[in-house]
């Protein structure tokens, strides 16, 4: 985790907006804590490009940091206590001398902070007290990983204040995943945290989760005339946890039936050869989801090769193929228990109509509700956004840039404090 100027983090046409955000952040910190913050940190949101629901079975993914971030103004303290206040929420207080998981903190920001601290201590790193005020423009429930950005932000603060900017971005991602799995109580894979921490376009091979292979890729959809758009269908994620949890559980049930822990330890041919037994003991959906895993892994490889070869047509084709596989095999476009709610299906149909054979679109993130992703030619962007807002409401379509820096400490000039 390095230190960066505004110009290194934010695009030229957005610098003023982000400087205003940091000025507001300073002013609110001073109102809350009565002192002036001395350090400033940022962690980006992320977009999944390919590899839908493969990371939790040690698969391959392709993701990128995006131009939405979680930021914090920080002042270190010497009392060993973390006081973390996020805009719109009460302050969270964590005593860094007590880092045991707490049942009462499950699914809370307190759990994430305590878990990140615990991950640092387990690695022989230092933790300490600080006061922080934070705000975020990473959409919650959008598949842009607001929770991962928050975890990485906390890790960056501890690295910057107490560990001479150690550990590196990859290790901070692992610590963040640990906090989410073991303290927050969500069995997420490593993709979200890795993309938020590392930034830029990256492919990630998670065959060995303790030593993931992270490959930076020089790529930007804007270079071939496309804008990355995320459409929020305003779907409600409440009561969908069983739907999300069923995907890794069903994939692993296939692996366990064949004597393995995760699908990455098997081949497509081995699974296909046991089709009858899998269908009987695990169910048809589990079999189809396993096939999606292998096909999606291949797509990540093919898309990575297309990016390296500078082949945008193949890139867009593979994005569409990934979306169709999520629809037909993975089956995470709408919950079977709520067939009356199919916002993602409507958004995908509308996107395909508007794109008319150009660009690409797919489900984004976990699925079932939330967002779709589209790569829209520049000349269609305005019409695309307007039509989506007609259906899903004002402000539902977010036009994003790729952010090449993930977690970072921001250098603030004196005139902004």
Secondary structure topology:
Blueprint: E1 3-4, H1 6-9, H2 15-33, E2 39-50, E3 60-76, E4 81-86, E5 92-95, H3 109-122, E6 130-136, H4 146-162, H5 169-184, H6 191-198, E7 201-205, E8 213-217, E9 226-232, H7 241-257, H8 268-273, H9 275-281, H10 284-308, H11 312-330, H12 343-355, E10 360-364, E11 371-377, H13 381-392, E12 397-400, E13 408-410
Helix pairs in contact: 3-4, 3-5, 4-5, 4-6, 5-6, 7-10, 9-10, 10-11, 12-13
Unreliable stretches (pLDDT < 50, length at least 5) are none
Helix content: 40-55%
Order of helices and strands: EHHEEEEHEHHHEEEHHHHHHEEHEE
Number of strands: 13
The CATH topology of the largest domain corresponds to: Ribosomal Protein S5, domain 2
SS summary, helix count: 13
Number of domains: 3
- Strand percentage: 15-25%
Output the structural class.
alpha+beta
CATH class of the largest domain: Alpha Beta
CATH architecture of the largest domain: 2-Layer Sandwich
Largest sheet: 9 strands, mixed
Write down the overall geometry: globular
Mean pLDDT: 93
Q: Please give the alpha-carbon distance between the first and last residues.
A: 23 Å
Task: Kindly provide the radius of gyration, computed on alpha-carbon positions and rounded to a whole number of angstroms.
Answer: 21 Å
